[in-house]
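Thread: "does anyone have the structure for this chain?"

Original post by V.I.:
We have the sequence but no experimental structure in hand. Need at least a predicted one for the grant figures.
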Amino acid sequence: MKKFAEIILKLRTVIIVTTVLVTLILGYFIKDLKINPDISSYLPKSDPVVKLFNYIGEEYGGNQLAIVALETDDVFNKETIERINYLTQEFKKVEGVSYVMSLVNVLDIRTDEEGTLQISQLIDEYNLPETPQDIQKLKNYTLSKDMYRGRLVSNDSKATLIICRLSEGADKIKTASNLKEIVKKSTVKEKVYYSGLPFQMMDISEIILNDLKFLIPIVSILIIISLFVSFLSIEGVLLPILSVSISTIWTLGIMSILKISLTAVSDIIPVILIAVGSAYSIHVISRFNEELLSTDGDRGKQSVKALSDVSIPVFLAAITTIAGFITFVIGSYLSMIREFGVFSSLGIFFVLIISLTFVPSVLSLLPNRTKIKSINGDIVKKKKVELIMDKIGEWVLKNEKVIITTGIIVVIIMCFGIPKIERRVNMLDYFKPGSPIRLTEEMMEKKFGGSIPIQILVKGDIQNPKVLKEMKKMEDFLESQKDIQNPQSVADLIEEMSDVMGEGKDIPDSKDKVSNLWFLLEGEEIMSQLVNPDKTEAVIQAIITNVDTKQIRKMVKNIEEYIKEVNNSDFNFAQTGMPAIYQHLDDSIVRSQIQSILLAIILVFVCLVFMLRSFIGGLIGLVPIVFTILVILGLMGYTGIPLDIATVLVGSISIGIGIDYSIHFISRFRKEFDSTKDELKALDKTLETTGKAIIINILTVTIGFLVLVFAELVPLRRFGILIAITMISSGGAAIILLPGIILLTKASFAGDFSHFMNKIKQKIT
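Reply from O.Q.:
Generated one for you, tokens below.
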């Protein structure tokens, strides 16, 4: 690698200028990068549940509901009704809203004084009730109807809903924001709640941006302090930060150019690059400083020597890390996980390029004055490091069996925790208890049964009484499920009309009677939300409360079993909606976790075998990776940290960090053992140099990411904790467990132990 180092340092000015220019160009495009928190878009469009969900959205005016709830002492008062009317009319004007329903425009079915069936709006928007008598009459009538009570107005009449259905393809976040802005500009005095997925998505986007604005400066300051304490030099602080920052800008810039939005997964790519990529520049800087300490002479020659020595370990560590992340592309069913795999790999590749070109170019240009300060600082530190690392080296050498036994015990304990892992995919779990969106959903559950939509598509002759009665049976079944509320369909309208006509609250037995009633519904706006134009399809809609993944799976399973039991040649039911999507998302997350980890371990093992030219070496090199993954998964089970779309990534980060530490440690140990022919000296020197760099990386990243416990977004908090544990576990396995195994097994890939067996036995005894 000497030739490579010479070329890099010869072109150092060109490299620095080019890096700056590319960074400026790609940085410009980041302004156009968008955030996509819509979990329904994460599953492939070919997924049957997603296809049906999108189909209903396209054919029935959209499948996303943005709900504005007003709460006061009694919604049946003149001022509140006027405000409901104003908001209803204004919401209709918002781009992306296909339909608005509230007390003032909901369909009403009644008979007039002569007994003639009348279909109109519950309240005439041009003639709102004003007198106390009219308002009391409206209240009594509304609360007497199942169509309204508990659906549009709460049983205690203290809350009411304005339901906005978003058209398919609408910008959900922009539409929700526009709706919220209308409310803010109005004279609403009631307490306002914003419910439904579009508002949740908007809040997540705002929280992500606020968390980044608040946390990144704090994380950066702590990392800068840690790096300065570790290196006692300006370059030791700036270059690791610069390498990760430049790589992040390049990655996000390319995502923006390719029109790839940030998701709830890919928005932590900067976190990945800091956790994994910062180690590369730290190893380069550490090796440069070591060369300056150990030799005198021309800085150019010292730079060539340092870069030559460190290039291969850094390159191998990066390539194997990339191999680990690429498995997400191969093994994931979710588009967001695949995108994460692609752009995380690209980001790691950029960190590698920057660490082996830009960083050494800058280091080689630094004046001697900076070098002397670094040397003086490192000399003071080196004495302390030597004492600590000597103790660790001696302890590891004399306690290989204790180390291995302890590691095995820890692994066994953690394995029992893995089956306890919970799984969560509900977007509401992103928000901490007491947050506005949580309080909103608690109100919605208490007064309206929830806000998460569930849909059943019905195919058949919808005007056939038999089909309509089966639709009512399906509604009854849905309502019998513990967490499903307010099922409704066109069958309810037919049933209500029959009841108002005095023929009983039931579907007529005659198709002619159904057709006569149906004729009166023709042209009503709500019909396009419930039935297709040729009356061969209809939708049953319901809502569910906020339940955990286990309850969702049970609910979806029960509905599927019922559908299989009743479907026949006359009609066909098919389930979709957020619960079914949540289940498929949960299945996909679990599948992605298992497949990506297994593929990554296999791929990394193959890489290690080729690098070390040893099958045993490949197995031993996997130790920090497997140990850390088991520790993380076990702790997740024992502590209740769930497997979700954020924590599913921790396994890949463990692989990235673990393989980096393994390669650097093994490479340096082999080099020192080959040079000294003394296992203790080789271990001491490895711990002093590579071990020191590993510890710096552990401390720097751990301190930085523990700050994430202050994040507003709950998955980000969990992610920060798991990253910190990953760093400590991987580092501990690399500097204690890994050398313990190497020395105990006397593996030939690490060096020739055959001439030193007697010497080792004498030392131990």
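V.I.: this helps a lot. Residues 369-383, 753-765 have pLDDT under 50 and may be disordered.
O.Q.: and The longest strand covers residues 452-460.
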